[in-house]
Each structure stands twice: as C-alpha cells, then as structure tokens.
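[step 3/7] inverse_fold.run input=structure_tokens len=451
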C-alpha cells in the first residue's frame, strides 16, 4: 500500500514537467515563489521610475506598487487559464513592462499621469483587438523571425542581469565588493544546488540561491528594513485613482510602444513553447498571449497602473528548470495578488538586494540566448535564414548600442527604437523575410554546380 502511495506521490510531482496536472499545493508553492522572486524587483521598478518622473508622493507611489502586484497576478492567471480567447494557456508570468518607461517619463511631466492612463486604456484595447485578429497577420512571424526576436531578447537581458549583479543601475555602491560577494555567493549556490540536488528539488536552485543570498545580505547589514515601519497590514486597491484623460499625441506614442510590446510577447511565447514544451508555439497561443497583453494592460489603467507584458526572465527560468505546470506556477500569481492585498508581504519581498537577484538571473538570461540559437538551428542554416538573422541582429543590437545614430529621426522614432533592440530586430527581420527571394539556395546551388 505504501509503495502505491509512493508511486502516486511521485506521479503527482512528475506533473511539474507537464503543462497540466495537479501537484500537491505545499510542494507547488516553492516553485511559484521562485518565479515571483525572480521578477519581483523588475515588476515594481517601472512604477518607481515613472512615479518619480511624474512627481508623485510616496503614498501615491506605494498605492501604484500595490496595484502593480495585483494586476501582475491577475494577468498571469488569465495568461495561464484563458478567459474566452484571451490568454495563451501557457505558463507565462506577466508584470509591469519596462518597454514603456522612456515614453512615460516624457509624457508624464508634459501632459500629466492622467493622460498616461488614458493612453494606456486606448492602446491596451487596440493591442488586445490585434491579438484576437492575429490569424490575419501572424503568418508574417515566420520561424526565423521568431527565432531572431527570441535571440535578441536574450542578448538584451544580459546587461540587465549584469546591472543587477553589480547592485542595480544608478546605485551608489554599484560594483562594490559587497555586491560582488552577494552576486557570486548567490550564483555559486544556484550552481551547486543544481548539481547536487536530486529529483525535482534540482529545479529549485534559483530559490535556494535567493534564500542563501538574502541571508548573507542580512548578515552583512545590507538589507534595508526601514520601509516596513509604515507599511499597513492589509489594503484594498483603488478603482480609477487617476481619471483617464485622452490626448491624441500621447495615444499615438503609447500605441506604437504597445506594438513593440506585442513583438516581445510573441518572442517570449515562442521561446517558452520551444524551451519548455519542446515544440513550436501555435497560432491560437500567440493570439491569446497578445490579447492578454493588451486587454489586461487596459484593465491595469483602471487601477491607475502601467501596462503589463510577459516577463522574459520567467521564460528563462522555465527554460532552465523545465517546470511548465500551470497549476504550479499559478501559485506564484496568487502569491503576487496576496502581496498586493497585504502590502507588508510585498514590502518584505521588495527588500531583496539587486545583487542577489543578479546572481540568479545572469544564468537564466543566458538560457534565453541559447533557446533562440536552438530555434535558429531548427529553422535550418540556409543562406536566406542566415542573412535574415545576421542582418537583423547586427542592426538591432549594434545600432541600439549607439542610440545617437537615430538622431536624424523624429522624437517618436527615437523613443520607440533608439534603445529597444528587440523592436529593431523584429522590424528588420520582418522586412527581410518579405523582400528576400525564396529561392536564394536554389540559385546559389545552381551557380555552385555550374562553377
């Protein structure tokens, strides 16, 4: 009898490597928590930056952070368990998008935060509708285009991981000995745990590294608990804390960024299907993913919050651990919602030092690069595919490292493309895929044979 129970127990834990199936709640929670810790700081950082640019008070910023956690949890649940055609059904974790930060930091001081909310509401609905109609245009996203975008996402995140490893961009002690110690200790703990842990425990290496790194940070006196003093135990989010105002210039600018966000979501969805499930993404999954991106972003504006999108760092975590069970990762989304309803819980999570997070994410982001390369391999190294990939990556990654090259273009073009390599790679790959002849290999082969 005990042997049968053991087999059933093992079978239920094996479900963490399957999209569907139940996993014991107590054992699912650590995997969900691991996902939330991996993206928590990145989820609230855009709010802090934009709120600062708009001159908001500390109380207003705190309310937005609370809403950000709740909306990220709701968006993740809808993404994993679709409502009608909204949601991909894949274990994609959603969070506040960094893609919009630069345009919001421009619009906020000029027009005000209420205009940002109006633009997010309209732009989100437009992206959501485009997602529902994806079957009419998604064929433009061929496998080689998707592979190029995924590879670009991975490369673009490497500097983010390095910045976290150093202590966070703009921090007073960036690259200090303390941050190096925390980053290295966390990274080594992740690696050692992954090497020596047995069975499914191996996939909790990131959580183990985060916990050890956090304990080391506390012992070093680096963790700042001062923010916990004035934090309330429970608080409900406000509906329409900022009444939306509608400005044509703002709506146009933000809608263009939503299209960029959609390209990143397409790449993330493709990467997750390939690296986590070992197959290509379906048209239905892509459509639902984009629709979720848009409509939940519009819902986010109702709570006074910024747009959400799929988080590439969580795609990297799935690629590294192969844990794809929706129920398991959904426990993380529920934790996120609770963190919003109980602000003190979120405040504790927010004390996680950047260097500790960087020690874990640096390997996860590299995994996304490898996933993109694997996707390219599946496309085949034909002359046409090599040309599309090489040129789109060289222009996208190269030009955005020297954003001054876009100086001749209008401000809106600079805002959208100058520092967003994923958007540039996507546009160049789409154009090349449309204009390059389909028979490049045939011509080349004939010429070679004749030679």
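[step 3/7] decode complete -> sequence:
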């Amino acid at each position: 009898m005990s042997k049968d129970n053991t087999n059933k127990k093992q079978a239920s834990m094996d479900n963490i490597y399957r999209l569907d199936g139940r996993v014991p709640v107590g054992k699912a929670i650590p995997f969900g928590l691991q996902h939330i810790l991996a993206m928590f700081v990145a989820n609230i950082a855009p709010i802090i930056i934009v709120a600062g640019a708009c001159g908001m008070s500390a109380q207003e910023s705190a309310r937005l952070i609370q809403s950000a956690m709740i909306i990220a949890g709701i968006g993740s649940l809808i993404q994993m368990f679709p409502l009608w055609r909204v949601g991909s059904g894949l274990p994609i974790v959603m969070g506040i998008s960094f893609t919009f930060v630069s345009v919001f930091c421009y619009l906020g001081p000029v027009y005000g935060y209420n205009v940002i909310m109006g633009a997010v509401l309209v732009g989100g609905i437009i992206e959501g509708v485009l997602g529902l109609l994806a079957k009419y245009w998604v064929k433009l996203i061929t496998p080689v285009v998707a592979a190029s975008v995924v590879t670009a996402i991975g490369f673009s995140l490497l500097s983010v991981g390095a910045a976290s490893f150093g202590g966070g961009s703009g921090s007073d002690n960036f690259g200090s000995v303390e941050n190096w110690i925390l980053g290295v200790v966390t990274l080594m703990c992740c690696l050692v745990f992954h090497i020596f842990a047995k069975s499914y425990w191996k996939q909790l290496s990131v959580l183990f590294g985060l916990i050890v790194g956090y304990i080391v940070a506390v012992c070093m006196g680096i963790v700042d608990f001062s923010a916990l003093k004035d934090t309330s135990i429970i608080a409900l989010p406000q509906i329409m804390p900022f009444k939306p105002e509608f400005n044509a210039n703002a709506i146009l600018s933000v809608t263009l960024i939503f299209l960029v966000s959609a390209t990143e979501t397409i790449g993330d969805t493709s990467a997750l299907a390939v690296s986590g499930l070992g197959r290509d993404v379906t048209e239905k999954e892509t459509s639902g993913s984009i629709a979720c991106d848009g409509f939940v972003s519009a819902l986010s504006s109702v709570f006074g919050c910024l747009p959400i999108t799929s988080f590439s760092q969580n795609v990297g975590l799935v690629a590294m651990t192969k844990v794809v069970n929706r129920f398991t990762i959904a426990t993380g989304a529920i934790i996120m919602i609770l963190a919003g309803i109980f602000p003190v819980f979120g405040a504790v999570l927010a004390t996680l030092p950047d260097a500790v997070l960087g020690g874990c994410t640096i390997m996860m982001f590299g995994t996304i690069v490898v996933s993109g390369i694997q996707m390219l391999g599946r496309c085949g190294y034909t002359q046409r595919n090599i040309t599309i990939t090489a040129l789109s990556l060289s222009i996208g990654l190269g030009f955005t490292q020297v954003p001054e090259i876009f100086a001749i273009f209008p401000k809106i073009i600079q805002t959208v493309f100058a520092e967003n390599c994923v958007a540039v790679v996507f546009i160049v790959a789409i154009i090349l895929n449309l204009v390059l002849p389909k028979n490049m290999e045939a011509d080349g082969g004939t010429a070679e044979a004749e030679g």
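[step 4/7] annotate
Confidence is low (pLDDT under 50) at residues 444-451.
The chain is about 70% helix and 0% strand.
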